[in-house]
Write a structure and sequence with these properties.
Blueprint: E1 3-11, E2 16-25, E3 30-34, H1 41-52, E4 58-61, H2 73-78, H3 87-95, H4 99-111, H5 127-141, E5 145-149, H6 157-170, E6 174-177, H7 181-187, E7 190-195, E8 198-204, H8 210-217
Helix pairs in contact: 4-5
The chain binds adenosine-5'-triphosphate.
The site of adenosine-5'-triphosphate (ATP) has 11 residues, from helix 1.
Length: 218
């Protein structure tokens, strides 16, 4: 697993969103990106995901969930391992999921409080239920690292804390964008503050003080 950006410029068209970015992450670190809307958190996350993809197994929770609305919760979770199987098996899984697979998926969904929704199409779910489905897919996938873009923004505070704890228990290495500063502090070993496309601070969670964080959002 190698995460290293040196002097990177990241963006979508002509104008860069992030310039001269230096960022690296070691195995075992839980890094949280903080910063106001538009600071560049998603841009940085997706650049790192692109760097990891192929070389490492990454569990991804994209900001928009990336779910297939017409398919059931269970099948959306199954998608987490789509690339472990051939096309024939995946096509078959659209019609029938074998018992051991179903049981494994359902156990994850139960831990996320979705046991009563496993057969429902994602399009019939609430925003928070969808978000938990996307998290479930990442758990089912597993891997060397989880990269998650505001994975608990649509659930209530109690659920958010539970899900963040589940992420911590399941993945040694994590890179998350979060809005909730207290949650970030509880989870992270390291906090990176972004504002206007620049990294304003980057250090051990316990060394980052409230003033630095408030300045991001001022
Ligand atoms: N697909 C895109 N095409 C062009 N510009 C984009 C695209 N996605 C994001 N941007 C721009 O890049 C900048 C940073 O956006 P980004 O999504 O990385 O911020 P963020 O910190 O994740 O914000 P939020 O907390 O609102 O998700 C913004 O100015 C945004 O308008």
């Amino acid at each position: 697993m190698k995460i290293r950006l040196e002097g990177a410029t990241l963006g979508y068209g002509e104008a860069p969103v992030l310039s001269e970015v230096n960022f690296s992450q070691q195995r075992g670190e839980r890094v949280v990106l903080l910063g106001p809307s538009g600071a560049g958190k998603s841009t940085l996350l997706m650049a790192i995901h692109a760097q990891l993809a192929g070389a490492s197994r990454v569990a991804l929770v994209p900001q928009d969930g990336g779910l297939v609305p017409q398919l059931s919760v269970r099948r959306n979770v199954y998608m987490g391992r789509l690339d472990d199987h051939g096309a024939a098996r995946n096509l078959g899984a659209l019609i029938y999921l074998r018992r051991p697979i179903r049981d494994e998926i359902d156990a994850i969904l139960a831990r996320l409080g979705l046991q009563d929704h496993v057969r429902r199409p994602v399009e019939a779910l609430s925003g928070g239920q969808r978000q938990r489905t996307a998290v479930g897919r990442a758990f089912y996938r597993g891997g060397d690292i989880i990269v998650a873009d505001e994975p608990v923004s649509a659930v209530d505070g109690v659920q958010a804390r539970q899900i963040i704890e589940m992420i911590r228990d399941r993945f040694d290495t994590a890179l998350l964008a979060l809005h909730d500063v207290d949650l970030a502090r509880a989870f992270a070993t390291r906090i990176v503050g972004l504002r206007d496309g620049r990294i304003r601070f980057d250090g051990p969670a316990e060394a980052i003080d409230r003033r630095q964080i408030d300045a991001l959002y001022a």
